[in-house]
Structure to design on (221 residues):
């Protein structure tokens, strides 16, 4: 499902076709497998080997470090691409729980949020954060910075780009963190963590504004 969505988006947004093509190939390879943590290193290496020839140069030589990413994640390391995909496949089926997770940490695996999802609920929208590792969603207070907890409406800004009604960028003037909020009601076929890879221009723009992302996506943006 994620692979097919990535291919649809790759055709629609040529700017991100390369990374979406790689992600599609990885998800096709992983399928519905239920890897054990002990097998993850092998799975990550299998993904890396399968994508080697079509991957951009920094990814070709990247040796995935699955345990290293899980315990001390470095989303800027090229090898994190393969480690994260393998970990996501594992986390989908693993009985994870972090009872003392902070509001800005995933209650399943404790990792950072990748993005926000605004879902229509009752007489307004409800905000959920989506995990950068296991993709779990959890409710989070709207108008709040997930990085520093700022709630002052004067300090939290929202931006939309022409032609992209399905994404809104939330930025904090206190700590200069941003993240994208995805709006599934604008595109019912949306898979938020796959769709979030399709708008690299928004990340380039945000970086130019002096902002940094709460957590970089699989493309390192
Ligand atoms: Zn998680
Ligand atoms: Zn902040």
């Amino acid at each position: 499902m994620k692979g097919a969505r990535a291919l649809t988006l790759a055709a629609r947004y040529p700017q991100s076709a390369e990374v979406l093509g790689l992600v599609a190939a990885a998800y096709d390879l992983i399928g519905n497998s239920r890897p054990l943590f002990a097998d993850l290193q092998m799975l990550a290496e299998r993904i890396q080997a399968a994508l080697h020839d079509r991957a951009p140069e920094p990814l070709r030589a990247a040796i995935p470090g699955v345990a290293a990413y899980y315990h001390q994640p470095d989303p800027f390391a090229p090898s994190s691409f393969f480690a994260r995909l393998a970990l996501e496949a594992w986390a989908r089926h693993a009985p994870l729980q972090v009872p003392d997770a902070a509001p800005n940490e995933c209650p399943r695996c404790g990792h950072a949020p990748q993005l926000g999802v605004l879902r229509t609920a009752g007489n307004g929208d409800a905000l959920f954060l989506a995990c950068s590792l296991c993709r779990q969603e959890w409710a989070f207070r709207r108008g709040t910075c997930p990085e520093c907890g700022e709630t002052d409406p004067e300090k939290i800004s929202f931006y939309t780009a022409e032609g992209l009604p399905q994404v809104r960028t939330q930025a904090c003037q206190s700590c200069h963190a941003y993240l994208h909020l995805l709006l599934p009601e604008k595109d019912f076929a949306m898979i938020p963590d796959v769709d979030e890879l399709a708008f690299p221009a928004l990340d380039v723009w945000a970086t130019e504004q002096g902002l940094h992302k709460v957590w970089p996506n699989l493309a390192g943006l």
